[in-house]
Amino acid sequence: MANQPQLSATAIISPQYCAPATHPIDLIITKEWTGRNNFTVTDTNNNLIFKVKTPLVTMVTPRQHRFLFDANRNPILHLRRSLLAADDKWKAFRGESEAPQDLVFTRERSSFMQLRTKLNVSLANNTTTQACDFTVRGNLFQNSWKVYIANSDNLVAKIKKELGTMFITEKFMVTVSPNMDYAFIVALVVTLD
């Protein structure tokens, strides 16, 4: 991600998850083949960074839930999506909460019909509906996405999905820019699946 302007630390979830200012951070997000869309997040040295757990969906609560935990099993985020809505909207809440005051961000499609994926991400303190805080732009044919600040060309993360087979696990190879909150990027990635 050379030739990008240097960002000041951008903590969405927590400053402790901001990549060092000197270099990007590379993460590997591996989808576990358990039938529940669980994920393991490691660095390039195979150190556990995060786990994402997905409980089974029931008819009582027609919502999909994913929980992001740190390496010590502390809950960081609760990601929630209604299965009845056509807008592919995810909401992220602190910890295991669903309370409106714990909302961190909302991620949704910019339009229903898309040839290329474009997702708008609005932070909880963004009360305008005209402007998003981040965009995720993707090419489904190449299984790749890029995360930008708002609608600018300021790139903060690159995501490449390596397709698996029945015996090989799917992986997302993620590069997060210096000073960017990598927990936030991981939360976006696990909503792409």
TrEMBL record:
Domain of life: Eukaryota
Family classification: Belongs to the LOR family.
Entries under Pfam families matching the protein: LOR
Protein name, as recorded: Protein LURP-one-related 15
SUPFAM superfamilies given in the database record: Tubby C-terminal domain-like (SSF54518)
